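ARCHIVE CARD
Drawer: 12
Card no.: 0347
Subject: one protein chain, sequence and derived structure
Cross-reference: see card 0346
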Amino acid sequence: MIHFLGTYECKAEAKGRVMISSAFKKQLMPYSEDGFVLKRAVFQPCLELYTMNEWKLMMEKISKLNQFVKKNNDFTRRFTAGVKVVEMDATGRILIPKELCDFANIKKDVVMASSVNIIEIWDKTNYEKAIDEAAQDFADLAEEVMGNKTIDELS
């Protein structure tokens, strides 16, 4: 499994091209030949960048859902809505399609943040707002999610 690391600010050009930070570019280079998948996030107004291999692993999980159960079918449709294959060019840029820029409100100032095996792509203002809101109850959330785990379960 991939583990990306870092949070970096960058700029989007008018047509949706975004220069990936040199730190993320180094982390993404081993996967660049196969391209990447860009999609809407489920819970936040941001985008998620998957390596093609991570996307295939996700699709393997989703393909195991019984598509004759309506909620599974609805989930699959919504999860994959607007999915695009993107490539990183020789200078380290990706082109974010207009409809995905619109979804995430990406215009100029962008934040790329690691989220374990994916990279989230945010409008900077929305990212800062989400971090500020999360900070208010992060201690309670951390205790709820991780507090009942033993050291062995965490490793």
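Annotation on reverse: The longest strand covers residues 109-115. Strands lie at 7-11, 17-19, 36-40, 47-51, 84-86, 93-95, 109-115, 118-123.
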